[in-house]
UniProtKB/TrEMBL annotation:
Coiled coil, from the record: none
Top-tier EC class: isomerase
Any Gene Ontology CC annotation: cytosol
Entry function: Catalyzes the interconversion of L-alanine and D-alanine. May also act on other amino acids.
Membrane-spanning parts: none
Residue positions binding substrate: 136, 312
Reactions that this protein is recorded to catalyse: L-alanine = D-alanine
Name this protein carries in UniProt: Alanine racemase
E.C. code: 5.1.1.1
Entry-annotated residues carrying N6-(pyridoxal phosphate)lysine: 39
Species in which this protein is naturally found: Leuconostoc fallax
One annotated GO biological process: peptidoglycan biosynthetic process
Length: 370
């Protein structure tokens, strides 16, 4: 993998915005501890920089999908609690215990295999998953769940009963019936069973809109801390949140063309007059999608359109006059009075904002700023 640090194209991540958004979530939810979901390269913004900013900004711990992501955080000397939300190989139980990583358990068989692989020198912290209607992973049967918790408690030499959790499939819309169905199942499955060190059930939507209804002392959120309003404006205008990222580059080639000249692959754009066309070194190979043709970027405090197809590494913009090489081009972020938000990009691409950011490739240089 190559990160392009000699190219002017870069993502800047704001530490203060991450801190601010963490505070907003904690306050809104009434949470004392927040795990920030940093799976999939920190929602595309950069696993290590985002995690560092989050821990410095008040996150208690980090949540990843995979063991490899957890180990990458430990390699980066991040010592905060880490929870793996997906299923890891039972053969790796000892490594997770030694690295002090909380692992998700969704079957008794897994625990029994893990026990075989644990020396007992370090206990493995376990978070038990309950499927209340996401239909993904977790116990759906109370007896099997109770039996597993019982096994954990019988084997405290090897395991610590750290967490009990579920995941909501719809917590961020005005459609609340399914959320309530999941909540009922949560109570039916878990009420009266031995309590873990902590429950963690609230994702962004539940933390922001249903905190009163769910255990909320510990929340497990991503979207909202990245400045993306989970309901995309349906339940809240998101004005309390701060955008955490900008994406900028520079004009690195400039030319004037007469009318009738084609621009980029398949000549989807043809000049209609004498036109100033600038080239910018970013493309769909960076995760700036081909669907972004026609989107307005910001140059010198004004909107200018992306013309012609977005190529893998470069794209063209139409400018009102000649600009010097090195002029800043803002794809996401503020320039003067104008701002492009992630939501603007998502709307143009007809995708969700979290799909846009997780599509950002390794090649994009990411920088932490204050
Ligand atoms: C991704 C994920 C989260 C975070 O969800 P957001 O909606 O981004 O807050 C929480 N829990 C689990 C299990 C997840 O997979």
């Amino acid at each position: 993998m190559v990160e392009a640090i000699t190219r002017p194209t870069r993502i800047e991540i704001s530490k203060s915005a991450i801190q601010h958004n963490i505070e907003v979530v904690k306050q809104t939810a009434g949470a004392t501890k927040l795990f920030l979901a940093v799976k999939s390269n920190g929602y595309g913004l950069g696993l290590v920089p985002v995690s560092q900013a989050a821990v410095a900004g008040g996150a208690y711990g980090l949540a990843v999908a995979l063991m490899d992501e957890a180990l990458a955080l430990r390699d980066a000397r991040i010592t905060a609690p880490i929870i793996i939300l997906g299923i890891s190989p039972a053969e790796q139980a000892e490594l997770m215990a030694v690295q002090n990583i909380i692992t998700t358990v969704v079957s008794l068989d897994w625990l029994k295999s893990a026990a075989q692989n644990l020396s007992g020198e370090q206990r493995l912290a376990v978070s038990i998953g309950v499927d209340t209607g996401m239909g993904r992973i977790g116990f759906r049967d109370r007896d099997a769940l109770a039996e597993t918790i019982d096994y954990l408690q019988q084997h405290q030499d090897k395991f610590e009963y750290t967490g009990l959790f579920t995941h909501f499939s719809e917590s961020d819309s005005s459609e609340v019936a399914y959320f309530h169905k999941q909540l009922e199942r949560w109570h039916a499955l878990t009420d009266g069973l031995p309590a873990p060190k902590f429950y963690h059930v609230a994702n962004s939507g539940a933390a922001m809109y249903h905190a009163d209804e769910v255990p909320h002392d510990v929340v497990r959120v991503g979207t909202v801390v990245y400045g993306m309003e989970p309901s995309r404006g349906e339940l809240n205008d998101g004005k309390d949140l701060q955008p955490v990222m900008t994406l900028r580059s520079e004009i690195n080639f400039m030319k004037q063309l007469p009318a009738g000249e084609g621009i980029s692959y398949s000549h989807k754009y043809t000049t209609t007059d004498d036109e100033w066309i600038g080239t910018v070194p970013i493309g769909y190979g960076d995760g700036w999608l081909r669907k972004m043709m026609g989107f307005n970027v910001i140059v010198d405090g004004q909107y200018v359109p992306i013309v012609g197809q977005v190529a893998m590494d470069q794209l063209m913009i139409r400018l009102p006059r000649e600009y010097p090489l090195g002029t800043t081009v803002t794809f996401i972020g503020r320039d003067g009075a104008l701002e492009n938000t992630l939501e603007d990009v998502a709307t143009h691409a007809d995708l969700a904002p979290w799909e846009i950011v997780t599509g950002f490739q390794e090649r994009l240089h990411r920088i932490l700023v204050d």
